[in-house]
Amino acid sequence: MDAIRTEALTKHYRVGFWRPRPYVALDALTLRVGRGDVFGFLGPNGAGKTTTLKLLLQLIYPTSGRADVLGRPVGDVDVRRRIGYLPENPCFYDYLTAEELLEYFASLFGYGPAERRRRVAALLDEVGIGAERRLQLRKFSKGMLQRVGIAQAVINDPEVVFFDEPMSGLDPLGRREIRELVLRMRDRGATVFFSSHVLSDAEALCSRVAILAHGRLVGSGALSDMAAFQVRGWELVVNNLTPAALEHARSLGRIARADALGGSRYALELPLSTPPERILADLAAHGAQPVSLNPLRETLEDFYLRHIAAAPTDRGLGAA
Amino acid sequence: MRIIGHVALNVFKESVRDKVLYNLVVFAVLLIAVSYLLGQLTAGQDVKIIKDLGLAAIATFGLLIAVFIGIGLVWKEVERRSIYSLLSKPIRRHEFVLGKYAGLGLTLLVNVAIMTVAFYAVLAYMNTQFPENVRAAWPAPATDPGMLRAVALVFVELLLVTAIALFFSTFSGPFLAAALTFGLWIIGHFNADLRNFEAVVDSRAAAYAARALYYVLPNFAAFDVKTQVVYALPVPASYVAMTALYGVVYIAMLLTGSVMIFARRDFK
Ligand SMILES: Nc1ncnc2c1ncn2[C@@H]1O[C@H](COP(=O)(O)OP(=O)(O)O)[C@@H](O)[C@H]1O
Ligand SMILES: [Mg+2]
């Protein structure tokens, strides 16, 4: 059984006050997410990620299509016992303390008082909220609210968690902590479905991804298998590169591009045709000193741009 | 049921933390100050005025709480998006609506109870301030327990107002919902006039329409027995029971409607 399944899931919003017309926020999304996957749901702002997550939590109803979570239609209360959700830019009752909020949510799962206290204390420790847990949430910064949001999402040891932009509002340390938390959840066997507009979040965590642009699925699979993200060359930065050595390498077709960085320092783009270590050895023989060597691949941003350029930009339904 | 209780307790906590209960202090101070002044001015001729005033104050303070919190109950959660994480928990949408309603009901109950105690305390004090011959002229004893019937009906009325506010707020913004609720409350107090509309107009259609409205709109005037209890006129227990039953049936219909609308809503 898949953790998440959607079948031609579609959502139209009605926009415009005087003459409402439909706007396609999500267009026939068909998706499978296996149990135990860490699944990255990627796409630029406005792609339809939040819309999809809200549909999966039945905060909004689909215009057409269907969605199942853990083999049951979304909205099933028994399934909700087994899932967790972090909304985008989460917001809670500002008159409660972090502790009280989590206790309240824990009570909705039917845990007794002792169990509630135990879970809440452990979770707040896990997401790095210390003495602040006794403060009202109105005093919390965005980053701290994000941590509370993550804590409430996993209060029931969910089998499937939905994180909408979990890294947003966090500093680098916070991001690393969230990454570690996601990996711990994966090790416990949970399925983690998270949305992001940043490829590096996904690269560091995901077994599989889906990429959304303009409400449509434009790619899915393992990141390492996706043709778009294969290595297409190397970027080599060297010091002490003499013009003669540069000309020589160029004449052998081993350098696709050379950018002078000042002095005898260059950034070179190497084609895939020759193994980079051979080119490196040649250049070193001419006295050049390598500084760094990095694979070149299409970034998610390049990928979006290509698909956004290709996709029709009108998301209205014409005269409907 | 357990879930509804948790939601309700959270509403109550919110109203305490947001200092809704402070209005009680205002109420008590106002009532004591006015009673003292009146006592001085009228030399105890008119404990009735204090009763009138106290009962009216209980109803008015309650009304303000019922409307303003009642409308904010659902609207604030949707507007601040705190509802997203809540509804992802194992809670059904109707449990959310009923829990919110029960929570405000509890807040109102506590408020009305405290105001009533303060009211009787002031009256008991007044009672000690005047000689036997002055008290004998009063239509009813100062701390006449019969006034509790009026308070009980005020409370049911407040529950009805809350249900109306909640109903409107499930599909409209707070300003519209407040306007509609107050509008209905005012019309509901003159409802009885609609019944006898045919006496005033010639048009049969208008008379039928007025009669239909009479049955559809809440009849708030029925809940108001304040004048009767102040003048010690009889208010039969059966009348109180029937009116309360009317209120409960009306509330049940409004809550059903609220739940049905809310269950189909998109939270965007
Ligand atoms: N309530 C709404 N009414 C109208 N349009 C909306 C509404 N919510 C989202 N949209 C539009 O739907 C598209 C998808 O939005 P969203 O799912 O929030 O994207 P993402 O989370 O990928 O940034 C956006 O173009 C957005 O403007
Ligand atoms: Mg989003």
- Determine the fraction of residues in helical runs of chain B and give it as a percent range: over 70%
- Could you state the order of secondary-structure elements of chain A as H and E? EEEHEEHEHHHEHEHEEEHEEHEH
What integer is the average pLDDT of chain A?
89
Task: Count every beta strand of chain A, where a strand is a DSSP E run of 2 or more residues.
Answer: 14
Structural class of chain A: alpha/beta
CATH uppermost class of the largest domain in chain A = Alpha Beta
Ligand names? adenosine-5'-diphosphate, magnesium ion
Low-confidence stretches of chain B: none
Q: N- to C-terminal separation of chain A?
A: 38 Å
Number of helices of chain B: 12
Description:
The complex is a heterodimer of chains A (320) and B (268). Chain A has helices spanning 49-56, 77-80, 98-108, 113-126, 142-153, 172-187, 199-205, 243-251, 276-285, 300-310; strands spanning 4-15, 21-33, 38-42, 64-69, 72-73, 83-86, 160-164, 191-196, 208-213, 216-221, 231-239, 257-262, 265-270, 289-297. With 320 residues, chain A is an alpha/beta fold. Chain A folds into 2 domains: 2-222, P-loop containing nucleotide triphosphate hydrolases (Rossmann fold); 231-297, 2-Layer Sandwich (Alpha-Beta Plaits), CATH 3.30.70. In chain A, the strands form 3 sheets. In chain A, strands 6-7-8-3-9-10 form a 6-stranded mixed β-sheet, sandwiched between helices. Chain A has a 4-stranded antiparallel β-sheet with strand order 2-1-4-5. A 4-stranded antiparallel β-sheet of chain A has the order 12-13-11-14, with helices on one face. In chain A, helix 3 (98-108) crosses helix 4. The radius of gyration of chain A is 24 Å and the shape is globular. Chain B is mostly helical. Chain B has one domain (2-263). Chain B has helices at 2-17, 22-42, 47-80, 82-87, 93-129, 132-136, 147-169, 174-189, 191-195, 204-216, 226-230, 237-263. In chain B, helix 2 (22-42) runs parallel beside helix 5 (93-129), helix 3 (47-80) runs antiparallel to helix 5 (93-129) and helix 3 packs parallel to helix 7. The longest helix of chain B has 37 residues, at 93-129. The mean pLDDT of chain B is 87. The chains are: A alpha/beta (320), B mainly alpha (268). The A-B interface holds A 13, 54, 57-61, 77-78, 80-81, 83-87, 89-93, 95-96, 100, 104-105, 107-110, 136, 149, 152-153, 162 and B 2-3, 6, 10, 13-14, 17-18, 80-92, 264, 266-268. Bound molecules: adenosine-5'-diphosphate and magnesium ion. Residues 13, 15, 23, 25, 43, 45-51 of chain A line the site of adenosine-5'-diphosphate.
